[in-house]
Design goal:
Shape: globular
Number of helices: 15
Structural class: mainly alpha
Order of helices and strands: HHHHHHHHHHHHHHH
Number of strands: 0
Radius of gyration: 22 Å
Distance between the termini: 6 Å
Strand content: under 5%
Largest sheet: none
């Protein structure tokens, strides 16, 4: 664990961000490799079926994204204030809440999955594979939730290297499992798209078990056996108060993704597959900014907890400069080499053509999204979550309106969807920049500092 409220801002930002960037790039690389295996082994139709399920999964896990971010902010501020008793209560109640919600989401996917797919205009020929992927993915959802919760807590405590190793192990296991589960080997029958989902389930299951055993021995704060399992209404209320607006924001973003998927589904298998390729490249391209954003939230949270407001602005400026450099490289690659990127996934000429056009347009949106993430992470780290929610409503409304109007009422067709998305990223970035410059986000504080009692039964050196 590390105190991020002291020391050189840029050096700390880079040293804390790099492991997260590497870990998330591992994860994005797996998403690409998964798409390559599915597209190359099973064909572009199977790739389209898997791609259809992705926005639905994101929509259903959106509530957990907010709860996870709330845990990072609360853990960061409690640790920055050196309030160890509060830290203990946050961990217990955050874990319980995340697991409970994950069980409800799993049941929802299994019971209502087909109906959800039907609502987004899933073509009949893709329905069976899309549902198989969705339901098998849900079978091990709880392991992914616990895995991500542990990584979020470690980041909130200033440790970004352990989550990197956890992500690397998950990705490695995924890559090892997926070809055998898709194609079959020995006693393992060919599972098709089910194999793609099951490889993720098994990888998260193994990583969660290995990570817990290791971390519980290394740091007693994360040893479930030493926790005092006491329900704390105030902590739960704080987690929900801080996490709900963020979850609602994610729900709005993911709902717009579902609506867009419904629009894309109207233009055929080739466009659906191209969109799936584009989403994977997008995940890879914006992950550096998202990783830096997590570092920004953690550093700002600890700085606010320590009463250092101006340091929060220094963190934001340093993160913005780094993000601009990364985004410039992405724009160059996606502008001049989009066909080369697309051909990795498929040999279908129509899919490659659609995907290349998507990438040339959307690489500029990646720049807007990256800068948006940095500013949003700053205000979230300070505890301001309601304003970003309002901005998301406005931005996603603009996204849906522009995408629908340009694709359905102009000759642009599916290209109108890509242009509509780009325009909406400009809207979101403009709103967030104005609030960062003029708003009251820097006056937020979630926890109260005060007497610092030790954690019962846990030596001080095991905490710090």
């Amino acid at each position: 664990m590390k105190d991020l409220s002291e020391g050189h801002v840029f050096k700390l930002l880079i040293s804390f961000s790099i492991p997260m960037i590497v870990g998330n790039l591992f994860q994005a690389a797996y998403s690409i490799i998964d798409g390559v295996f599915v597209g190359r082994i099973l064909g572009h139709v199977a790739l389209a079926a898997v791609s259809i399920s992705t926005p639905l999964i994101f929509f259903l896990v959106a509530i957990l994204i907010g709860l996870g971010i709330a845990a990072v902010v609360l853990v960061g501020q409690a640790y920055g204030a050196k309030n160890h008793e509060l830290l203990s209560r946050i961990l217990v109640n955050s874990f319980t809440l995340n697991v409970s919600v994950s069980v409800l989401i799993t049941l929802s996917i299994i019971i209502w999955g087909r109906g959800m797919l039907a609502l987004i205009n899933t073509p009949e020929g893709l329905m069976e594979d899309a549902y198989l992927f969705l339901s098998w993915f849900a079978s091990g959802f709880i392991f992914m939730v616990v895995n991500n919760w542990i990584m979020g807590v470690m980041r909130g405590l200033g440790d970004s290297r352990t989550p990197m190793y956890m992500t690397g192990l998950t990705v490695l296991l995924n890559i090892l499992f997926i070809p055998f589960l898709i194609k079959g080997a020995g006693p393992i029958p060919p599972l098709g798209v089910r194999g793609s989902a099951l490889s993720t389930v098994l990888a998260n299951m193994v990583t969660t078990a290995v990570s817990y055993v290791y971390l519980a021995r290394k740091n007693h704060v994360l040893d479930f056996g030493r926790w005092r399992w006491v329900f704390d209404r105030d902590i739960i209320a704080k987690i929900i108060k801080l996490g709900l607006p963020t979850s609602l924001q994610m729900l709005i973003v993911s709902f717009s993704g579902i609506v867009l998927m419904g629009l894309v589904n109207l233009f055929g298998d080739a466009v659906i597959a191209a969109y799936g390729i584009g989403l994977r490249v997008e995940n890879f391209s914006v992950l550096p900014a998202m990783s830096i954003g997590v570092a920004v939230s953690t550093m700002v949270a600890q700085s606010i907890g320590a009463g250092k407001i101006e340091r929060a602005r220094e963190i934001t400026v340093a993160a913005t400069r780094f993000t601009l450099a990364v985004s410039a490289a992405v724009i160059v690659v996606c502008t001049f080499l989009p066909e080369w990127i697309s051909i990795i996934f498929t040999n279908e000429a129509a899919v490659i053509s659609h995907a290349a056009l998507y990438l040339r347009i959307m690489c500029w949106a990646y720049l807007n999204l990256s800068l948006f993430f940095i500013l949003q992470s700053t205000v979230r780290g300070a505890g301001s979550v309601t304003v970003p929610l309002v901005f998301s409503i406005l931005t996603m409304s603009a996204r849906i309106a522009f995408a629908y109007a340009l694709s359905r009422h102009t000759p642009l067709n599916e290209t109108g969807i890509w242009i509509g998305i780009f325009i909406s990223t400009l809207v979101g970035l403009g709103l967030m920049f104005v609030y960062y410059q003029k708003g009251s986000w820097h006056r937020k504080k979630i926890i109260e500092t005060g007497p610092v009692p030790p954690l019962a039964g846990i030596p001080e050196e095991d905490i710090l």
